[in-house]
Design a protein that fits this description.
Strand content: 5-15%
Shape: globular
Distance between the termini: 72 Å
Oligomer: single chain
Bound molecules: adenosine-5'-diphosphate
Strand order of the largest sheet: 10-9-8-17-14-11-13-12
Helix content: 40-55%
Number of strands: 19
Number of helices: 35
Largest sheet: 8 strands, mixed
């Protein structure tokens, strides 16, 4: 089936596809066309990785647009949104407009309404539905990429509920779900009332095998000798062998999947011995340039380690890397410049980075709930293996697992090579998921009674799969109680039926996209901080908590009982203040409060951390908001300390401690710091909105929240907030300017240019841009010579600033 023979697409699309090299549709694509994907039919396409699922989605979307409709493409990861948008933008020549919605709090609703194709994550779509984005009602086609992720306990329920909502508001909506090959694609098709195209066809053959001894044993019975010599390990031998086997005049690159970030980093380091000696002079030059770009991304050990490995042709890839790191590595790997990438499974999930050989080095991963090393799911391993083989470049792809003895080899064949992927199972009936989605469903008017809610939930995969309708009803009842008790919804018992409606704060929480439990935790903490020092808690103020204790959920952290009567006022620095936020609400207290919410992943307590943070806890107990668990409540106390560790990271960041020191001190990557900082900023913004909406939280608390948010946003102490508000002035430049005597935006407009230039290390372009952004009339640096003493003061100042230990204990919140 040739693209130009297809009808229903915008003019010229078929020819354009052929010009791109799509001479014939792949068999699963042809099957999708036969199933009616060009005529608005809903479809589930369950086919292997790299078998052209995106084109199936494009055919659906383009034909929908040709009929006058609009399409939404739901991506599984935020990192993929821009990639997909760029891919679809090639249709702009055919009059199709594309938009992407990624931000946490963007208000791009109206602009998006003008686009033909919108790309967004399921969380973003869910948020847009809650906020009543008008274009949602006009959609005619929705694509869900990697729909098997409905199985994911964390994010699956959002995708599931979002699809159910979209289908509810648009009864005729064409739903195209793309899935890896899973055990029960028919159930997904049933749920979505869709045709099913299921196939194990691949554009390039995949051989799966297990390396043991000195050979790979493949599933087709063949063997390839790969000797493990001397000190080499299996992985190094396999990577070297792929590079030495030339096809198309070039050796083959490898992807090595491992089970932790640390392992990815150490594997890459070791593999430089294999790749380094096989590089040409040109490749070395190009890699040196790439390493310089990587070093420019951030100033951390991780960045340095990555650059050092890349100079010798190897790289690591994991979620702790900054986004720029990741895309530089992915591009260079696709360009065959980087010869091997050691990755955690994030790379298997959607990024198009094929390699000749995939090596699944670790097939077990530590799992706390499991209590040890747990074998990976078949689906996950198959997705990693699916990255093997570049169509047109390799004769076939090879995916290799590693065994150190014959029994393990047999086990790996049974467990992964011969096995089918597991069935997908809905995780919706878990309480945290339902808590969030029940509130959103009521707040956005999809349900107004308990029965209405259950009827809505009947459109989910959960309902399609379960034989136990009672369980969903039982969890739903618990969740409704929770939401009522915490004041997010109200029951109206008048009339025959009991109606449910979101309260003002309930609407706010839903629109802010908060887990209701996060909101409840923050409200409790803020009210506690604002409690009058002398009076006993009044009954009115705390009825929610009192009610909650009657329920069966009293072990939930959000149901604090406010027994603490010391605490907030212990600091007693009454002499200190003059209208500024009260001293008892410190950034650390707020960071700790938001780190306790389910919307913030707290840092892990490593060995030795418990003692360390217990000590911090006793030192700074007075600053922490809400009710501390007793030390004897092991799990809750441990959580409390883990949140304190997270809070200390945020506090250090907001006190200008250097990134590399933070990565060392907290055992995290630069990408993790960014993630925590972004989440903290978002939660504090939400806290500020909520604080204004609820009773019992005063204006000083609102100010304290705002200041803590700004400090975490810019990563600076209070005195630099004005300077960091100027574009192009980050935390480091602000500190240097400050130390040179330029303390405010207004100072920048007046200051001696020589001093500005000196403080900015003589960088004229930067200095000009900064002055321009500060509103200076003549920002030109022509003929200006940097003031050396300013430069020295700036350096001395920031050197002090970089002294982490000293800085962290400066008590800079007074
Ligand atoms: P999937 O989403 O299934 O993992 P992709 O849609 O990313 O796979 O497709 C993998 C690659 O195959 C892409 O580079 C795409 O351009 C190419 N491709 C898709 N369909 C065809 C076709 N019919 N002929 C040639 N190449 C194709």
């Amino acid at each position: 089936m040739q693209p130009s023979s297809l009808s229903g697409l915008p003019a010229g699309v078929g020819e354009a596809l052929e010009a791109e090299g799509v001479a014939e549709l792949y068999p699963p694509q042809a099957a999708a066309v036969e199933a009616g994907v060009l005529d608005g039919e809903s479809l589930v396409a369950a086919v292997p990785t790299a078998s052209g699922k995106t084109l199936i989605a494009e055919l659906a979307m383009l034909s929908a647009i040709e009929r006058g409709g609009t399409a939404l493409y739901i991506v599984p990861l935020r990192a993929l949104a821009s990639e997909k948008k760029a891919e679809f933008e090639r249709w702009e020549d055919h009059g199709v407009t594309v938009g992407v919605s990624t931000g946490n709090y963007d208000s791009d609703g109206e602009w998006l309404a003008t686009r033909d194709v919108i790309v967004a994550t399921s969380e973003k779509v869910d948020s847009l539905v809650r906020n009543g984005a008008p274009w949602i009602d006009d959609l005619t086609c929705v694509v869900s990429d990697e729909v098997h992720l409905v199985d994911d306990a964390g994010r699956g329920p959002t995708l599931e509920v979002t699809l159910a909502k979209l289908r509810r508001v648009n009864p005729g909506l064409q739903t195209v779900a793309l899935s890896a090959t899973v055990g029960n694609a028919d159930v997904i098709a049933d749920w979505l009332d869709a045709e099913l195209v299921e196939s194990d066809w691949r554009p390039i053959d995949l051989r799966m095998g297990v390396h043991y001894g000195n050979a790979i044993n493949f599933d087709d019975g063949s063997q390839t000798e790969v000797r493990v010599e001397g000190a080499d390990d299996q992985t190094a031998a396999l990577v070297g062998d792929a590079l030495d086997t030339e096809e198309d005049g070039q050796g083959g690159s490898s992807l090595v999947f491992v089970n932790s970030r640390r392992n990815a980093e150490s594997a890459a380091r070791r593999l430089t011995d294999v790749t380094g000696s096989r590089l040409t002079a040109d490749e070395r030059d190009a890699l040196r340039d790439l390493a310089a770009d990587l070093r420019d991304v951030s100033d951390t050990d991780t960045s340095e380690d990555l650059a050092t490995a890349v100079e010798r042709g190897a790289a690591f890839h994991h979620a702790g890397l900054a986004a720029e790191h990741r895309s530089l590595v992915e591009d260079a790997f696709r360009d065959r410049l980087i010869k091997v990438v050691a990755a955690t499974p994030t790379l298997a999930a959607g990024v198009n980075t094929p390699a000749r050989r995939v090596i699944v080095r670790d097939w077990r991963r530590y799992d706390g709930d499991f209590g040890g090393m747990k074998p990976l799911d078949v689906l996950e391993v198959h997705q990693m293996c699916g990255r093997a083989g570049r169509p047109g470049l390799d004769p076939y792809g090879e995916a290799v697992l590693l065994a150190s003895d014959a029994d393990t080899m047999d086990e790996l064949f049974d467990r992964y090579v011969w096995a089918d992927a597991e069935p997908v199972r809905s995780k919706l009936a878990a309480e945290p998921a339902l808590r969030t989605h029940a509130l959103a469903t009521i707040a956005s008017g999809f349900a107004a009674t308990r029965e209405g809610l259950l009827e809505f939930l009947d459109n989910t995969l959960y309902a399609t799969q379960t034989d136990d309708a009672g369980r969903l009803a039982a969890v739903t009842d618990t969740v409704i109680d929770y939401l009522v008790v915490n004041g997010f919804i109200e029951r109206d018992r008048e009339g025959g039926t009991e109606r449910l409606a979101a309260t003002g704060i309930g609407h706010t929480v839903s629109r802010l996209y908060l887990d209701p439990m996060s909101a409840a935790t923050m409200i409790d903490g803020l009210r506690d901080a604002c409690r009058e020092e002398t009076t006993e808690p009044s009954a009115g103020e705390f009825t929610l908590a009192a009610d909650a204790d009657d329920g069966d959920a009293s072990d939930e952290p959000a149901f604090g009982t406010y027994t603490r009567v010391d605490g907030a006022n212990v600091e007693g620095d009454a002499s200190e203040d003059d209208g500024a936020p009260r001293p008892s609400i410190t950034p650390l207290g707020l960071y700790h409060l938001l780190s306790r919410t389910p919307d913030m992943y707290e840092l892990y307590l490593k060995s030795g951390d418990r003692e360390r943070y217990e000590e911090t806890y006793y030192e700074r107990e007075a600053e922490l908001l809400g009710d501390a668990p007793s030390e004897y409540e092991d799990v809750r106390f441990e959580d409390w300390l883990a949140s304190l560790k997270t809070a200390r990271l945020l506090e250090d960041w907001a006190s200008e401690v250097d990134e590399d020191r933070l990565t060392e001190r907290y055992g995290v990557g630069p990408g993790d710091i960014r993630g925590k900082v972004d989440t903290a900023e978002w939660l504090l913004r939400a806290a500020e909105t909520i604080a204004r909406d609820v009773d019992g939280v005063d204006g000083d608390a609102v100010l304290a929240v705002r200041e803590a948010r700004k400090r975490v946003e810019y990563g600076v102490r209070e005195e630099l907030l004005d300077l960091t508000g100027v574009r192009n002035v980050g935390r480091k430049r602000a500190r240097r300017l400050f130390e040179a005597g330029i303390e405010t935006r207004a100072d920048l407009r007046e200051a001696d240019k020589a001093v500005v230039l000196g403080a900015l290390r003589g960088r004229e372009r930067t200095a000009e841009r900064v002055l321009e952004n500060a509103g200076r009339e003549d920002p030109s640096m022509d003929g200006v010579r940097a003031d050396r003493s300013a430069s020295a003061a700036a350096t001395a100042g920031s050197a002090n600033g970089d002294d982490g230990e000293g800085q962290a204990s400066l008590g800079d919140f007074q």
